[in-house]
Amino acid sequence: MSGGIDVVxxxxxxxxxxxxxxxxxxxxxxxxxxILLDCGEGTQRQMMHAGLGFNRPTIILISHLxxxxxxxxxxxxxxxxxxxxxxxxxxxxxxxxxxxxxxxxKPLGYPANFKVRAKELSPxxxxxxxxxxxxxxxxxxxxxxxxxxxxxxxxxxxFHPEKAKRLGVPEGPLWGELQHGKAVRVDGKExxxxxxxxxxxxxxxxxxxxxxxxxxxxxxxxxxxxxxxxDGGFAEERxxxxxxxxxxxxxxxxxxxxxxxxxxxxxxxxxxxxRDDSVLLREARKIFKQxxxxxxxxxxxxxPLK
Amino acid sequence: MSGGIDVVxxxxxxxxxxxxxxxxxxxxxxxxxxILLDCGEGTQRQMMHAGLGFNRPTIILISHLxxxxxxxxxxxxxxxxxxxxxxxxxxxxxxxxxxxxxxxxKPLGYPANFKVRAKELSPxxxxxxxxxxxxxxxxxxxxxxxxxxxxxxxxxxxFHPEKAKRLGVPEGPLWGELQHGKAVRVDGKExxxxxxxxxxxxxxxxxxxxxxxxxxxxxxxxxxxxxxxxDGGFAEERxxxxxxxxxxxxxxxxxxxxxxxxxxxxxxxxxxxxRDDSVLLREARKIFKQxxxxxxxxxxxxxPLK
Lengths: 306, 306
Known about the structure:
The structure is a homodimer of 306-residue chains.
Chain A: E1 5-11, E2 25-30, E3 33-37, H1 43-50, E4 58-61, H2 67-70, H3 73-82, E5 89-93, H4 97-105, E6 116-120, E7 126-128, E8 132-138, E9 146-152, H5 161-166, H6 173-179, E10 184-186, E11 189-191, H7 193-196, E12 205-209, H8 216-221, E13 227-233, H9 239-244, H10 250-259, E14 265-270, H11 277-285, E15 291-292, E16 299-302
Parallel strand pairs in A: 3-4, 4-5, 5-6, 12-13, 13-14, 14-15
Antiparallel strand pairs in A: 1-2, 1-16, 2-3, 7-8, 8-9, 9-12, 10-11
Helix pairs in contact in A: 10-11
């Protein structure tokens, strides 16, 4: 059962870190599992500071193979191994991920105390994780870059035994039928599921689109997201630079969030040149009010609406 | 002219970082140049916090090719490039360094705005850096690991023009001869260099031996060092672990510093298991009083004695 998703911004910087902002990484905590989005250099120490732990069920999603998004991976795996992790770890990323792992990880002679189940994804591919679905699309960067959507599945509404009893439905197989959406008959009277079961509970949807120009594919992926984390570390006056490097301005991120009818926007990949992030916030909020420009270690607790 | 060497401990941790201790790296500042000893993950941000700058003349010495000593290198080079470094950078390390660079650095598509002059060294090899000499030896680890000595050359003593004048030596070529150690004759009287020139000024000697068991080769290299930085992050009660992983206890580091007649010892590579570093200090100081167990960002200003 989902109790929501906690978002921990581990590294909100761009490719060039600053004293205040680490290299890209965001952690989602969901039902005891850790979902790590990118793993820039230094992520393992950011995780220590955030108290995230190295032996919980973990899945890592890599957006693309630029160094600033993956160079924390070998050290993180090494640290997990040193700390005697025993759970397997799932790792997803674009084509080339396995080659990177083979190049960097194996020759360094790290011990492999636990299994790393790595898989390359093509943009568009989905991964069914049981309680949630990972959907992907191609972002708009200078190398193949995946935008991810983590979508909790709809869960059945709550069943009210006292209502069933009041309507004369005896405890037993008929309860199960009602819970599975079937009407039942008791003493010639029809009892419908919505007499005793609440409406299905919708899950949360969190979208991560970093290192990208505004893209129609991302807008579609982000439709109705509870949280959209989007590249947007450039102020409007530096838009030509954002274009040149295949990034977005905060305002462009806001426009996309608005078009996607997202509920909230977190602007990430803050350029080191952007000394004053209040400019980003101001420019984005003119378009999309529910914007934040998170600092490192800022957290956000997302709860399903019903 | 040397005004001494400033030592900045950037990462004093072992292969597993902690909240307090980063992965291995030490910076030496000497006469405007930065000498970086190892470059663990996160070194670039530690450098930012220490205010070291990315465009000064820089030389990086890598002890060995375990990930915790080199995984900060690609990101550091990328950051230097992003910040439009224009000066070449000299990089030295053991055999395999070039392969690592080719594997990790080039495929990630980093721009190369400046020249990286990388060179693999065999233990024992020397590098003449003009004002100082780098000497190397093989440390005692489970893979080839180089211990480094940075030795400032002896500089000529100060010449006193007023003494020369008083002794009747006219300004001109004779002054040069005296400065170069030759006696001269003026009106039949012999003037010796030490009448007008102070004794040669000895330089500083700094030795870095990390990831090593106590080794005779390191003792020889460290002879008379002004500062010996030595692996020693294990307390005596964990000596079997130190032996197993080819590291040293703080006490063993102290014994080596004493045998080498070093002037000062800094114990580095502090194991994450060592929660209380005062134990290391106590155990080492029983053997060698001039020991410190530096914290991250601690600095040490070394001055030549004369």
